[in-house]
């Protein structure tokens, strides 16, 4: 199976501040590129626990006694770390988004480059496919999904066009969806990619799951532990940025009676790190990546 080269590899390893005897978590195992590099830097007592809900990722599991692959969504981080006797960890790495493997296998339904079933599930064994989701969604929800998750221009027009076509002939394949939305776009708008992104985020509950990861990560990181996140669109990056800065998903951090901000993290990256021109040339998937890192403070 072809998986993408690990994005911002050296930068993410440096920001994790790996200790040979530490316990670390890679919540987006995929092809195992980041995980392999982490294991190379761990000693005999070190430990790496990886998560990936995609059944295809199991073929890449690493044959190393220090490694554990959890075949579940990282929204269950806290529960499975307790199960594997690692209630506190020294670092968490999340490389969000869709892998090259998932894009390249057209039967998964993520790609606009080839026809396949309109699925889009990270785990094709669980939940509704995108086709099933479209079969039940109402116009208002679809408009909001396209506007918020896809940042689609004129989302009501696009939503009405999709639903009208779906009512006449159910949209079950990616090429059908592309044919429906092609005349609905404005010149210069990357409508295909925006619509596919919006549906994928909705089907996989990606923003909800990310928020659960951030909250759980705060609780399972040991003092001094590092939280490193690579995101690929502004919705993810804004949430990560706010959470690392304020320690919560909305609003500003609380203050004590002296006016001091009660935040759980120290920012390691004041500004998001981005890939070099050389990396983007070698790995085009990296072009939209943004890397942020924070360190868990000692309890106040």
Summarize the structure.
With 300 residues, the chain is an alpha/beta fold. It has helices at 9-16, 33-40, 77-83, 100-104, 130-136, 139-149, 155-168, 174-181, 191-204, 206-220, 234-246, 277-282, and strands at 23-26, 47-51, 67-70, 89-95, 221-231, 265-267, 290-296.
Architecture overview:
This protein is of the alpha/beta class and 300 residues long. It folds into two domains: 9-100 and 206-296, Rossmann fold (3-Layer(aba) Sandwich), CATH 3.40.50.150; 111-204, DNA polymerase, domain 1, CATH 1.10.150.170. 39% of the residues lie in helices and 14% in strands. A seven-stranded mixed β-sheet has the order 3-2-1-4-5-7-6, with helices on both faces. Helix 6 (139-149) packs across helix 7 (155-168), helix 6 (139-149) crosses helix 9 (191-204) and helix 10 runs parallel beside helix 11 (234-246). The radius of gyration is 20 Å and the shape is globular.
Task: Please describe the topology of this protein.
Layout: H1 9-16, E1 23-26, H2 33-40, E2 47-51, E3 67-70, H3 77-83, E4 89-95, H4 100-104, H5 130-136, H6 139-149, H7 155-168, H8 174-181, H9 191-204, H10 206-220, E5 221-231, H11 234-246, E6 265-267, H12 277-282, E7 290-296
Parallel strand pairs: 1-2, 1-4, 2-3, 4-5
Antiparallel strand pairs: 5-7, 6-7
Helix pairs in contact: 6-7, 6-9, 10-11
């Amino acid at each position: 199976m072809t998986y993408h080269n690990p994005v911002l590899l050296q930068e993410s390893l440096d920001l994790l501040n790996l200790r040979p005897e530490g316990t670390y978590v890679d919540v987006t195992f995929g092809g195992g590129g980041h995980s392999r590099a982490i294991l190379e830097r761990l000693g005999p007592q070190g430990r790496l626990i990886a998560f990936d809900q995609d059944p295809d990722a199991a073929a890449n599991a690493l044959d190393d006694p220090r490694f554990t692959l959890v075949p579940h969504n990282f929204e269950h981080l806290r529960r499975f770390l307790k199960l594997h006797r690692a209630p506190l960890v020294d670092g968490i790495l999340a490389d969000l988004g869709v892998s090259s493997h998932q894009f390249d296998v057209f039967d998964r339904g993520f790609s606009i480059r080839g026809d396949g079933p309109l699925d889009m599930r990270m785990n094709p064994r669980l939940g509704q496919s995108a086709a099933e989701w479209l079969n039940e969604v109402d116009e208002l929800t679809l408009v909001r999904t396209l506007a918020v998750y896809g940042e689609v221009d004129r989302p009501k027009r696009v939503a009405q066009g999709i639903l009208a076509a779906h009512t006449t002939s159910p949209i079950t394949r990616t090429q059908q969806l592309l044919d429906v939305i092609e005349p609905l776009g404005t010149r210069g708008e990357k409508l295909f990619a925006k619509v596919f992104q919006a549906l994928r985020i909705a089907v996989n509950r990606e923003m909800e799951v990310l928020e659960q990861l951030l909250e759980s990560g705060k609780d399972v990181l040991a003092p001094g532990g590092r939280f490193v996140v690579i995101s690929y669109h502004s919705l993810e990056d804004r949430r990560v940025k706010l959470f690392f800065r304020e320690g919560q998903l909305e609003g500003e951090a609380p203050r004590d009676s002296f006016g001091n901000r009660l935040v759980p993290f120290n920012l390691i990256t004041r500004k998001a790190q981005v890939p070099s021109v050389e990396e983007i040339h070698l790995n085009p998937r990296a072009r939209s990546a943004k890397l942020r890192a924070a360190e868990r403070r000692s309890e106040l």
